[in-house]
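Weekly structure sync, notes
Attendees: PL (lead), two postdocs, one rotation student
Agenda item 3: pending single-chain targets
PL asked that the sequence for the first pending target be pasted directly into the notes so everyone works from the same version. It is reproduced below exactly as submitted, 417 residues in total.
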Amino acid sequence: MHENWGRDGRLRSAGRVAKSHLVGAEGKRWGVAALFAVAGSGQNVEGIGKNRASRAAFAHAHEVPGRGTIGELNRPRGQRGSNQGQDLKPAGLDRPNLDTQLSPKRIILVAGILACGLCFGQFRSRPGSDNRFGPSDNFVRIEGGQVINEDEVRTARETASHATGTANWTNAPGFNGDSFVFARVIFKSEAGVSRRGGLRWLGWWVDYPDADLNLSYRLQQITSIKTDPDGRVLKLTDPALTDYPLLYMEHAGYMRLSDGEVVLLRNYLLNGGAMLVNDFWGGEEWDGFAREMKRVLPGQTWTNLTTDHPLFHCVFDLRVPMNRLQVPTLQFWNPAHDPDDPNSPPLQGIYRGEGSEEMHVRALLDDQQRISVLAIHNSDISDGWEREEQNEQYFRMFSEKVAYPLAINIVVYLMTH
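Predicted structure, written out during the meeting:
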């Protein structure tokens, strides 16, 4: 049974463990026996309550009304295994202050460098399909400029971080086949121009690989879930699809599935698999995603979930107004936004399309009312995973209090229901 270190450096005992066995496409049990321990059931990580009834109600010295926190998350740099008990500080925040008195020559030099950088940024290739290395159907340029082959990539770990680096950890040999694997789906997106006149250039690779590995690390740090340290990326046509009971999709608003992929995803979901979809915005992207899912599960209708649903308080208590759980993309975040003031400026500094203002969590349910597909619309919780070390205020407001608690709730709920 996994054990966790509290912020004070004392070893905490793990909570209740439940095995998850899902049924494969041929009616057989999947070869996945992931061990899940519900944090808060006897576990005492800072910010996770001891009370079994309340499970993990947020309790923290600087909590925001209506929001809690998973406590002072511990994430030392490097291997991150030698400094247990330290508070997490996003990278770069302890650097010494620089002399802010610039001479005229320095100002001219800095302006020239910025102008060159702006020109380069305007004319360099955007992330997306890249045809310099062969057929554009196989190669894609991701954030940070790295080009990967969709036909060959297998794990998040083999793709270099484009943010501030990711944690490294290992599992005991006995857990090699019994750990939770974050499995991201590779899919094709329809190119073209959106209703707002912008190019459709974002795809499955947004926030990859940092979001995948950071969330996996936090899952094994905060709960007694053992997580795979490499993650997995795969197509719906991969024969190993049914090895992974939970799939993840991002920016699926312009996703276009082949007929074969439609059948494979339908079989996966009807035989016990679940899927989380996140980070797509506005009515146009919702319509595109919903159209594809109608092909996958015809006749199914979406159910709007409120924060009264058990998913929002199975581990961390997130029974708050839904707008308190909306996570902005870091680059577009407006720190002046006040969710309690209807006259404050918007949460994000750019307009993301008609119908993008309010966060929605919607689900497709199976015939036993269990969630097959969970879609988080108009929120970017994965940026809270990916960008956690880039801005301390963003980390404290969104990564620590929303993105990670909500993700942990989702994983535990979907894997145990």
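Discussion points:
- The chain has six helices and 14 strands.
- Helices lie at 104-123, 210-222, 259-270, 282-296, 381-386, 392-416.
Action: rotation student to compare against the earlier draft before next sync.
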